[in-house]
Amino acid sequence: MEGGSGGNDVELVCKTLQFEHKLFYFDLKENPRGRYLKISEKTSATRSTIIVPVNGIAWFIDLFNYYVNTDEQDAFSKELKLDTKVFYFDIGENKRGRFLKISEASVNRNRSTIIVPAGSSGEEGWVAFRNILLEVNEEASRLFMVPNQQHMEPSEQLTGLSDDVGAGFISGHSAQSATASELHVDRLVDLPPQDDIGGMGMSKVIRADQKRFFFDLGSNNRGHFLRISEVAGADRSSIILPLSGLKQFHEIIGHFVEITKDRLEGMTGPNVRTVEPAQR
């Protein structure tokens, strides 16, 4: 799906971010071909734009989390495949400081690049950019929520992530393989605690093929529990695991990981991969 500037485009969400000498525009739009997020970078002299399919916003959030939370010397370039597009994420540095260069390559558009400064102290620029993406994705989740998800309890609607399963996956997947550890690093997302799970509040989500699995640590009048929810398309189902059984559950999962690790290491990986300098 390609975004355009035709008369059929409808603006759904518009946000701006000013950081240092740059102004970023985030425009969530819809046209007959689908929904997309247009991200434009404007300086006094230039303006450049990338077009992100709506199912790629969560992947952008994941990648910004990676660069925010990874030590400078340990951060690698990443390549993200979405539909017919490939996005390249590269860290660079100039006299103003560190920056993240995001380039979009597509068969339908000339290559386009935006530059997101890290900031003078830490990664506050990347954090601010990530937070806008979270806001856009949260509003997109509400706008595009399927009917049987509108009646979920608030604790089941995880802030900042859409339940649009399959986000970030392309038909047939990538032929690129990945190790088991890489699969976990690139798929894990930290989410804000939910109001209904008290002091122990924590939520995680992982992606596997065309499904998402949500892990919510909670409590009720019967005690603490871990709720594991499987989401596939418009379907969602959950199991509730008392904390008293969590250790046994972990041991059983570990058992199956151990006996299938040869197969796991050869499985097709997700569409986010680390790019070695020689490959680019």
Automatic annotation (TrEMBL):
UniProt KW Manganese keyword: no
Keyword Zinc-finger attached: no
One MF annotation (Gene Ontology) recorded for this entry: DNA-binding transcription factor activity, RNA polymerase II-specific
InterPro entries on file: PUR-bd_fam
Keywords attached to this entry: DNA-binding
Database matches in Pfam families: PurA
Cellular component annotations (GO), alphabetically ordered: nucleus
TM annotation in the entry: none
Family: Belongs to the PUR DNA-binding protein family.
Protein name: Transcription factor Pur-alpha 1 isoform X1
Source species of the chain: Elaeis guineensis var. tenera (Oil palm)
